[in-house]
Amino acid sequence: MKIDLHTHSLFSDGTDRPSELVNKALSQGVTTLALTDHDTIAGWDEAREWLRPGLDLVLGSEISCQTEDGISVHMLGLLFDRENQPLQEMMAQTRDNRLGRMERIIARMNTAGIEITLEEVHAQLSDGATLGRPHLADALVAKGLAKSRDEVFSDWLANSSPFYVSHYSPTPEVAIRLIKDAGGVAVIAHPLASLRGRVVSRESMDSYIAAGLDGIEVKHRDQTLEQQQILFDIAAKADLAMTGSSDYHGTGKMNELAEFTTDPDQWEKLESRANARRVIRL
Length: 282
Prior knowledge:
Oligomer: single chain
CATH class of the domain at 98-157: Mainly Alpha
CATH architecture of the domain at 98-157: Orthogonal Bundle
Number of strands: 7
């Protein structure tokens, strides 16, 4: 079995349509695929429409969070009830605040002599997509100001960059509780990916566990083997599910679909924590 619990489509910062993502998963022998676009469920219906026998579909979202001291945290919400209004309202508020954030980033870049407009950024979005820094990167590449997304993030859009602007996000504890109240399960994504910026402390992990955290993304390309071992130990001690995921974005990142996967017993453990059976299969 090949179980990949963290992927993105062009409804956030991926480059594949949900239909293309489903077809790639089928062609590569993936047996369970989670669609987890940032702060949105806009791609769910298309993914369901293109589902074929042999693939189980897990619907979710990667929710943007921020600790009280400004550390960015991503929380995967899986198997939640799409009709739950508090969770949907929180994601909508996060999406709305992304626009103001983008305007401030562009203003800073313009002041520094980097000529890019909000209209050029919006031209990189598909209908219903969640606006994010990768779309700004794509606009800069399209304009010939950079060669790739990776170059843009390295030179201009890293969290340590003078152009970085934070935006409204719930705390991880709030996101976990909202996911759980919606009947889903909460998995913290790549929590020790230090190359992305500051990472959460051991004490913070204890707080997330107390809030109801269900799993930890242990195997991820942005975490070293030493970091993975630390997370393995935390998960084992707290009896949390341990996942492995690709964080696939299509051509937007180097990550390959199912380059890391979740063990079937860990997936069974995680799924059992949802309040209803919501895996989609034909």
